[in-house]
From TrEMBL:
One of its GO terms (cellular component) is mitochondrial large ribosomal subunit. The lineage of its organism: Eukaryota, Fungi, Dikarya, Ascomycota, Pezizomycotina. It holds the Pfam family Mitoc_mL59. Residues 17-146 form the Large ribosomal subunit protein mL59 domain. One of its GO terms (molecular function) is structural constituent of ribosome. It comes from the Eukaryota. It comes from Fusarium oxysporum f. sp. conglutinans race 2 54008. InterPro entries: Ribosomal_mL59, Ribosomal_mL59_dom. This is Large ribosomal subunit protein mL59 domain-containing protein.
Length: 224
């Protein structure tokens, strides 16, 4: 164990704020037993904590503010005497224990807090999940579309095709329409072509069965 002279030499090498602090609040670890307390220790046993006055019952602020506590802890850590300081929330040991328990929570970052955020930020997770599922289902969707594309292609060429629906076993039959007819009347040439009325197409449970309600073709002779 170090002698008293060594402690005195170490105390003289400390910065002035630490020397004044240890003179007012000498640590019990380096003092002999039955050493009387100083006047400062009798008034405030721990200068880093709030103190309840025994007479008035009111709470008093610490003798050293949080900023001054942090400065003392920093100087003591640099000189290797941090263990001699009273317990404080600015101590290295307390900060490490708090970080292990709560993680790297920083006010304003949202870590460990519920932040409202913008509307696009709140909906981002649900949208990305919907998009992910759609991308996973894309191969099967492409296959279903290729199976029904040839059946729907006739709608792009209404003058060449007419869709005559016969729901026989759930199948759709495509019949080729004759070429455009030319008919002379009173020395004039008239073009007769099939005319389609509006129809309704539905997908039942996103299946590849194209259901048609009605498609009518007028008599080409009535147009002449």
């Amino acid at each position: 164990m170090a002698s008293t002279s060594q402690f005195i030499g170490l105390a003289k090498s400390l910065p002035a704020p630490l020397q004044r602090f240890f003179a007012r609040y000498p640590p019990a670890a380096i003092l002999p037993e039955n050493t009387p307390k100083t006047r400062y220790q009798e008034e405030r046993p721990n200068p880093f904590r709030f103190y309840k006055h025994p007479v008035t019952g009111k709470w008093q602020d610490p003798v050293y503010s949080q900023r001054r506590q942090a400065e003392l802890v920093k100087m003591a850590r640099e000189n290797g005497v941090e263990d001699l300081l009273p317990e404080t929330r600015k101590g290295t040991e307390y900060k490490l224990a708090h970080r292990v328990e709560h993680g790297l929570r920083v006010k304003g970052t949202g870590v460990g807090q519920k932040v409202k955020g913008h509307i696009h930020e709140r909906h981002m997770i649900a949208k990305m999940e919907t998009r992910r599922k759609a991308m996973l289902d894309m191969p099967s969707l492409i296959k279903r579309w290729k199976r029904v594309r040839s059946k729907i292609d006739c709608l792009d060429r209404p003058r060449e095709h007419v869709l005559l629906t016969t729901l026989t076993g759930g199948q759709i039959r495509l019949d080729q329409v004759p070429q455009i007819n030319k008919k002379k009347r009173d020395g004039m040439t008239a073009l007769a072509r099939p005319v389609h009325s509006p129809c309704i197409f539905m997908y039942n449970n996103i299946s590849d069965r194209l259901v048609k309600e009605r498609l009518c073709t007028q008599n080409p002779a009535s147009l002449s």
